[in-house]
């Protein structure tokens, strides 16, 4: 099992969810986060005063999938979320040792 953790632009969430649903991925966890990277924030003006906002809103997706689908799912997310500009996000890939479905006690792949 593998965990894909993706940091995306909030505006790309629905497109990515739709693409994952078409591929057959239905179980995802979505968290609203803030952060910065190469984008380094932006400047805004409020009542004539300029402010630097260096933590920008992002969305974090967490998906646990079978190892054989990792490359396909990473490619789907990457292509769907890409705008070609700085701030498109990142995908982090982790190995998962085990999972347990609390309701039934199932473990491993059956728990996903």
TrEMBL record:
Modification O-UMP-tyrosine occurs at: 51
InterPro entries: N-reg_PII, N-reg_PII-like_a/b, N-reg_PII/ATP_PRibTrfase_C, N-reg_PII_CS
GO terms under cellular component: cytosol
Keywords: Phosphoprotein
SMART domains linked: P-II
GO MF terms, alphabetically ordered: ATP binding; enzyme regulator activity
A biological-process GO annotation: regulation of nitrogen utilization
Family of the protein in this entry: Belongs to the P(II) protein family.
UniProt-recorded name of the protein: Nitrogen regulatory protein P-II family
């Amino acid at each position: 099992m593998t965990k894909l953790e993706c940091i995306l632009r909030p505006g790309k969430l629905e497109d990515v969810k739709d693409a994952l649903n078409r591929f057959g991925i239905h179980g995802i966890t979505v968290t609203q986060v803030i952060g910065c990277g190469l984008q380094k924030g932006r400047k805004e003006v409020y009542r004539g005063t300029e402010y630097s906002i260096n933590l920008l809103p992002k969305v974090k997706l967490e998906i646990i999938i079978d190892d054989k689908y990792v490359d396909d799912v990473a490619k789907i997310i990457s292509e769907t979320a890409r705008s070609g500009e700085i701030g498109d996000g990142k995908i982090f890939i982790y190995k998962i040792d085990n999972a347990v479905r609390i309701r039934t006690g199932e473990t491993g792949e059956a728990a996903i």
